[in-house]
């Protein structure tokens, strides 16, 4: 590259299953300096195929997608096409989304409230060998490293096939916490909390929060207050 020449644009593929969101991201990226959108995928399977065909520099990867989710697509892309980096661009910033994506090989992680400048920085960072993490994700990682892991119930001891996180949410419901309070305590979005609640209700047959409290006490997931529960 000659002195004073502009750096070569980063060739980017966008993967998101929501058409309006995907088209909006593509439109935004088209306005950003140093970014060239070379393809767009509607799910993880298509993203892997486009990477094989186009060899982009970076994939901006959503996580919750049909056929092949973003974590599996990231794993395949990094294994089969190591010259392509992955930056996650998702609504979710909870541990159950963040850490699997990073373990799969994503070098960047942004939430969808990121601005154009932040996306450009993340793309440039991963291409230079650095991590492209939003400030909120960096804080979450530091919190996870500095705070000891809370004891998690053994999977075999959880009734009705509940996951450790679903048991944790159920226990917090029994403590009287609202969805918003649970989200703050677990460092997740309220949408993620609602998903966990819907899943545990479906598994247990619980219909409302009052039944959830009784279920938690009956199965020993929380200790009843003095005098018991009536």
Automatic annotation (TrEMBL):
<dbReference type="InterPro" id="IPR039420">
    <property type="entry name" value="WalR-like"/>
</dbReference>
<dbReference type="InterPro" id="IPR000792">
    <property type="entry name" value="Tscrpt_reg_LuxR_C"/>
</dbReference>
<keyword id="KW-0804">Transcription</keyword>
<feature type="modified residue" description="4-aspartylphosphate">
    <location>
        <position position="62"/>
    </location>
</feature>
<dbReference type="Pfam" id="PF00196">
    <property type="entry name" value="GerE"/>
</dbReference>
<dbReference type="Pfam" id="PF00072">
    <property type="entry name" value="Response_reg"/>
</dbReference>
<keyword id="KW-0805">Transcription regulation</keyword>
<dbReference type="InterPro" id="IPR011006">
    <property type="entry name" value="CheY-like_superfamily"/>
</dbReference>
<keyword id="KW-0238">DNA-binding</keyword>
<dbReference type="InterPro" id="IPR058245">
    <property type="entry name" value="NreC/VraR/RcsB-like_REC"/>
</dbReference>
<dbReference type="InterPro" id="IPR001789">
    <property type="entry name" value="Sig_transdc_resp-reg_receiver"/>
</dbReference>
<keyword id="KW-0597">Phosphoprotein</keyword>
<feature type="domain" description="Response regulatory">
    <location>
        <begin position="11"/>
        <end position="127"/>
    </location>
</feature>
<protein>
    <submittedName>
        <fullName>Response regulator transcription factor</fullName>
    </submittedName>
</protein>
<feature type="domain" description="HTH luxR-type">
    <location>
        <begin position="155"/>
        <end position="220"/>
    </location>
</feature>
């Amino acid at each position: 590259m000659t002195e004073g020449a502009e750096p070569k644009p980063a060739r980017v593929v966008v993967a998101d299953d929501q058409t309006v969101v995907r088209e909006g991201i593509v439109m935004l990226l088209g306005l950003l300096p140093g970014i060239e959108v070379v393809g767009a995928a509607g799910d993880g399977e298509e993203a892997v195929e486009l990477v094989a065909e186009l060899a982009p520099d970076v994939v901006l990867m959503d996580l919750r997608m049909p056929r092949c989710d973003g974590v599996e697509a990231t794993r395949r892309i990094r294994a089969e096409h190591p010259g392509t980096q992955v930056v996650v661009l998702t609504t979710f910033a909870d541990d159950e989304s963040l850490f699997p994506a990073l373990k799969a090989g994503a070098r960047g992680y942004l939430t969808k409230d990121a601005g154009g400048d932040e996306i450009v920085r993340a793309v440039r960072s991963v291409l230079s060998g650095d991590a492209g993490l939003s400030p909120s994700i960096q804080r979450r990682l530091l919190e996870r490293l500095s705070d000891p892991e809370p004891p998690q119930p053994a999977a075999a001891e959880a009734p009705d096939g509940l996951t450790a996180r679903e048991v944790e949410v159920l226990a917090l419901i029994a403590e009287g916490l609202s969805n918003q309070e649970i989200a703050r305590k677990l460092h997740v979005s309220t949408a993620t909390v609602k998903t966990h609640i819907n899943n545990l209700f479906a598994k247990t047959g619980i219909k409302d929060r009052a039944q959830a409290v009784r279920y938690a006490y009956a199965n020993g997931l929380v200790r009843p207050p003095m005098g018991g529960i009536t």
